[in-house]
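Blinded run. Sample ID left blank on purpose so nobody reads anything into the name before looking at the predicted structure. Input follows.
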Amino acid sequence: MSFLSEVLSAAEKTEIEIIKTKIPELSQEITDLKSEIWHYMNNVYNKFNERPQKNNILLKKATTLSEDLDVLRNTIEEHLRKDIPKIENDLSTLSLEIEEADIILSAVSKFVVLHDRLMNIRNFQEQKQYIECVKEIQSAYSEINELEVEEEVKRVTTNIRRDLLSERTLVCEALDIIFGDNILLNSSCVGSKTENTIRINYENNTFKDALVAFHMLDSKIFLLQQISNFLINEVCLPILQNVVFINIVDDQKSYSFVLTYTASTEVPKYQDIFSHLLKVFQYLHTHFNYHLTGDYSTLLYVVNEIKSSLVESVIKYCLLSTVPSNEVELEKYDEILTDISKFESQLHKYSVFEEKESPFTDYMKDIDKLYVNKKCQEYTEIAIKLMKKDLHEMVETGILIKNKPLLEDAHDFPKCSVSKSVLELLKLIENMLQKAMESPEVCAKRIVSATQNILNMYGSVVSENHQKMLQTIPQQVALFKNNCWHLAYKLDSWNELYNKKIKFINDATLFKDQSHQLRCFGADVFRHYVQGQVQQIEEILKNSSLGELQTLSNSNNNIEKAVRQCIRQQELLRTVWHKVLSYNDYNETLGYIFNSFCTKLMEFVLLVEDLSSDIAEQLADTFKIVQTRGPKLFTEPKEINMYVEVWYRFNELVFMLNASLVEINDRWADGKGPLALVMKPEEVKRLVRALFQNTDRRAALLAKIS
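Blinded prediction complete.
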């Protein structure tokens, strides 16, 4: 080894020895500084007995120690680069010690820096430098969230967070006051007159800085959202729905946008709506277009908040009303489309829409489809009004068909009464189908779909709007049933007529589902009402003395009263229904009700084991009322047996109540007589036992009946 090398090696060893001595000294100084900082922070934030003037001294100490550590770190790294094997292990150990000391120093320094930021926040707030104030708040929150807190200083950290939150709240309150001093939103109503005002002060730096600071604190600025809500609800919507007056006032301190309107039914013209909305956004573009960050401004913030609602509302309350209602208006609609395009261009100018956005022209460009949709909506509204009309205004339709059931595929519709409103509805639907034949396929499909929807809703709309009548008035329920079946009949005939004329239908059936649904709906409602009548009759009979026949010994007027009441109820149905229902529907329905009535009367008698002669005689007399008045319920009294299945059986029962054993024997005629044709042997025997005492003659008759 040369002399020079020996000298350099000795110098390096000496320098390393110095580092070994220096590191423990710095570590001790860092430990002392840490204790001093903890003690200081505890006094400031926990005991509150020391003012924060010492912070700069501690921060300076921490900075000096950090610089000393950097010098030692650089020296070690220089030696490591020389790659001297003998001292490499020593250098690595020293490097780790420096890193440990640096971590401790960094942690305690962050507390000092945080404390310093709190002081800056207070100073900036006093000087009303709100942007710088918010920057310090954001930095402080970022730093405190990164702290690894030791147990001994948790309370200090908690209190620093508390003070930071307190300072942030104070800043927000100050910004709120500035906002309120520069912007006023007011709505007042006196009688039928409403006045809504937006007042914005002249441009000033304090307000501009406050808005930027607000945006830095929270991208969702609550106060700007308030403006957005006021703008859409108290300015734009009134413009769309009312005839309004706008006045912009300059009072040398502020610009006020004043909108006034009086509640009325007058609908504003679309040209006026466009003009007023442009005034709104021109006002905002001129007086409320403050920079927030990058290319973002208060105007863009507000526009982004209301854009979706604005577009939806303008289409709903303005543009849809411009859609033509007839073909003459449709031919002239290009002028309106031009006005819409100009309106949208101005909104681009005022930054309401981005360059590529054109929601109004995009929506209105397919005017033919919108026109058809509007017509279909009008058709539907007319149809619903017809469905809500009174059902009792009726007319006769169809041809007289006797003794032939009404089937779904019948070619003739039976003579009956239907509501006038149904004929009007059919005329409306026929006009729609004619329109579909003349229209392009896309429009034709929409019109046909509208007719199907109208027919789909008929049952539910009518039953909902006439619910009480359909539950209580027999005429109404019969008309509803006829209406449904008449509609279905017409739909079947239209299937044959229009399937070939409306091209896109091809092999599909135009009204297959609607026809079947209408029949089912009408039949179900009518059947439910008829079943209710049967239950009422059964309830009347149940509450009479018919259930106590075995215990009755003397005549009882209660039975005759109940039977007469049931007959009167059916006669009322006859009065109402015989001119409404078709021949077959009427007779079959009355036949079903009367058959149930007779069956119930027979059940009461056939269940009795012992019947006194007086009661038997009274029953016979009472049942003769049924025999006399029952046939008159039907269109042709002689046809009662066609519609009342138990009629012959009921007549034989009445015969037995007044007959002798000999007469009953003759009537039975060894099982070949009329009595045997309608009654079972067990029933005849049971009634004989109930009517007659146990004698040889009764026994002989019972023996013959088998």
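Unblinding after everyone has recorded impressions. The domain at 538-704 is CATH 1.20.58 (Methane Monooxygenase Hydroxylase; Chain G, domain 1).
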